[in-house]
Design a protein that fits this description.
Length: 165
């Protein structure tokens, strides 16, 4: 899982992957191999691959996380890059525009036709990505002016899907 950690004025890429019974955690350029045990609702025991072991206290509300490790407390915002791109697209869509693919995938179904009026949130098409079907929704109310893809097409992230006016 790829995330963005925001600390003060710094954005760091964070990747967390299951690795056997533990995790591989990459923060920026550094990679850690960690075993983690939950010791309570906010307390976790971390053991690094070099044998060091620490208690970690973690509390979160929404995207805001407060982490205490080795007596140091930091506040970090954790952001899902796909959710961030979706929010940016919705904010910039206004009354219409080009709806783009958030990630690479394959078009499974088209749910609308050119000339069709749609409400905000109406399903436009189904995009299969990472073996999951994702419904791409209209970011605003409008009319489907043009559809740029067809079922079976493979698209890259950022590829235009439909024009909504």
């Amino acid at each position: 899982m790829k995330l963005i950690a925001r600390y003060e004025d710094l954005d760091l890429g964070v990747e967390v992957e299951r690795e056997g019974s533990g995790y591989r955690l990459t923060v920026g350029e550094r990679t850690f191999h960690i075993d983690m045990v939950n010791c309570g609702p906010y307390v976790h025991s971390l053991r690094f691959d070099d044998g060091e072991q620490f208690s970690l206290i973690h509390d979160s509300v929404g995207n805001d996380h407060e982490v205490t490790l080795r007596g140091s407390k930091v506040k970090v915002e954790i952001v899902d890059p796909l959710a961030l791109r979706r929010k940016q697209r919705e904010d910039s869509a206004g009354e219409g525009g080009i709806v783009k693919a958030l990630m690479p995938g394959r078009i499974v179904r088209i749910l609308v036709e050119a000339g069709q009026e749609v409400a905000k949130g109406t399903g436009i098409l189904i995009l299969e990505a990472m073996k999951m079907e994702n419904e791409i929704q209209a970011p605003a109310a409008g009319t489907i002016e043009e559809i740029f893809v067809k079922p079976g097409d493979t698209v890259e992230g950022g590829a235009p899907l439909v024009h909504l006016v």
